[in-house]
Structures are given as structure tokens and as C-alpha cells.
Amino acid sequence: MAAANLLSRSLLPTPNPTQSSHPNRRSPAVVSFPRRHGRLSSVRASVSTASPSPPPQPAAAAAAGVPKHCFRRGADGYLYCEGVRVEDAMAAAERSPFYLYSKPQILRNFAAYRDALQGLRSIVGYAVKANNNLPVLRVLRELGCGAVLVSGNELRLALQAGFDPTRCIFNGNGKTFEDLKLAAESGVFVNVDSEFDLENIVRAARATGKKVPVLLRINPDVDPQVDIFRDAAVLMVNYVDEIRAQGFKLEYLNIGGGLGIDYHHTDAVLPTPMDLINTVRELVLSTDLTLIIEPGRSLIANTCCFVNRVTGVKSNGTKNFIVVDGSMAELIRPSLYGAYQHIELVSPPTPGAEVATFDVVGPVCESADFLGKDRELPTPDEVEEDGSIVKIRHEEKLDDYMKFFDGLPA
Questions:
Q1: Model pTM?
Q2: pLDDT digit string (tens) for 230-253?
Q3: Residue 365 a catalytic site member
């Protein structure tokens, strides 16, 4: 389903439409990390991989080799991020597990939207629920992004990150009165979700003495398989005409977000930001509206990964497990609702390493603590333990246990 928002905002100034067209920023050079001696067995659970990120082109261009993410397997078998071995990043990290981000990829992803929106008055509102890491939010704010918020805490975080409130949208079906008062005082857009939500917005406006800019959410119920954004936009234009005919002043059209991402690393050809904007460009221009979009995953998903150290490999006789030091405490999505995260080894496997089906699990004593299930992976063969290299066996046999008793008195 697609949802869109219409804004009647006659009493507040229009955000500077040029802010979304931020000038190109040069990506910082990637610094090589010092490397400790000894091999490391490790896996990374990709927070996901997204649609093509360099300058936007029609979806067909993806098949022509447009890079999809900054994490790539080198000819030497190691995983690299922006030319740096992820294994070397592990060696330099203060602790494990950790999230590894590519700022250049964030810049490339934003540039795809910025370039697609050329010629339109627009606001790119980043969906904070996609990733609320404060340094990431600050990078996006510096690029000219607004913020899309679904809770009072996200609203406070956006204000802490320095986002322009007039470029922020407060969504959600359970907004509290206290959060709405903060929204009113801050000057963010507030999305009207229901009649009781509207009543609370009015109360907050009266309590603060502020005029609240509101968005009206409309669910057009279009077929998600056929030009969803254009179908939704056509319906929205009809609503715009009807509302304007009643004497209301409309200034904004919010088509939401929703660009897909390639979770499974299948090199799927997915719509790009340019594809999305081109489906609604003429309609937006014909109605003289400022376009708001709410990208989340397509801005951030392919910029980071969750890097873990393998602590062991075991089997219960029917199922094989790779145990890592990361857990549901750091990445909740797989255990919470079965979200798929791409998982791969950071280092090349030893020649001849057995490929088997594993569940990748964490150290928390909880049956739901897993990052992935039934994954075909080479068996990790080594970890670094107290500076020495220790072999990990795929399975322990009785002889392996009994050797520890050799030489002991009966």
C-alpha cells in the first residue's frame, strides 16, 4: 500500500527549497588501519544492502554494473569496505562486535536523491527509524536532510542532532500529549493519524499557544505491483483539486518512502531514486506543490554492517551453529520478527573448508538470540585467542575430550 500526505501550512514560512539540493561534498580519503598478527575468523551481518547508490540512473543501468554497496569481496578473498579490509578494521576496533559505516556511501546515496529532485521544490525527510545513530543523523542533517519521526524520543534525537524543525515530520498513531506539545513548540510538521490524534494536536496547540503545521494522511489503496507511486500521486492530485476547490491552501505533497532493497544480495534490479521521482515529476510540477519524500533504508541500508568475531562452531547432532560475540542485544530484527540479514565471512575460508548449513547465534542465553538461520557458509577454522591461534573443530569426538585426561592418575 502507498500512503501520501497533504499539508495545509499557510501560517508558517515555507522551508528553503534549495536546501535539499546540497552541493557536492568530497568524500574523505579512507585510512588504512594497522593490522595485528594472526588470522581472525569473523562474520558480518549486513544491516542490509540497498538499491544502486552512485548518481541516479534508470533501473536498467543497474544491470550495467552500477555498484550497489560499499562492501565488496576482493580478489584475495577478503571483504573490503571502501578499499579497507574489514578484517583490518576489526583489528583496529576497540571492542567487538561493532557497526562499520561508510560515510562516502551515505554521501552517494543522498546524491542520488538530490540529483533526482533537480527542478523540484522538495524536502528529503530521512526516516530516523531506519537507523538512529547520532553521528549518522548529523551527517544527513549536514547534507540538507530533514527527519521523519515516529516517537517523542526520535523527535528529541532529531533536535539534538540539529535538524531544522521546519523540515521534520512527526508521524505515528499514538503520539502523546507531551510529545505533541514539544512538536508544537518546535514547529515540526505533525501528521494527523486519527480523530483522537487531531483532538490531541488541537489541545497541544492551545496549551503552547502555537499554530501547528499539519499533514493529512491519505491511504489511496493502490495496487503495490503497478507503478505504485504514480498511481498514488494521481489520486493525490485529485484530492488536491478537491481540497483547493473548497478554499484551502495546500503547499506540500508527501509521497512517503518505500524504495526496495536487495536483502539477499541477488543483484536484483530495483527502482532507483530517479525512477521514483520521474514517475511523479510532472504531476508535482502541474500542481505547484513542494514534494516531500521519506527515504529510510535506501539512504542508509547499504552503508553499514554489523561486524562480529566468531567464538566457536558446534553441533547438537542435528543442527550446526556458528557462535559469534554479537547478539540480539545489538541487532534485534532477526529475533524480533524474523528479518533476513545477509551474513558472510570477513576472511577467505581455508582451502577445502567444509561448506555446511549453520544457524548463526549470539552469546545471550535465550533461544531467540540468533542473527540468521539455515545459512550455507564455509566452516570458520581459526580464531585469535589471547594472542595465539586456536583451531575450531566442526564437531568434537569422544577422543577429543578424553585427551585432556591423558597422564592423570586413575
A1: 0.78
A2: 777 778 778 888 989 999 888 999
A3: yes
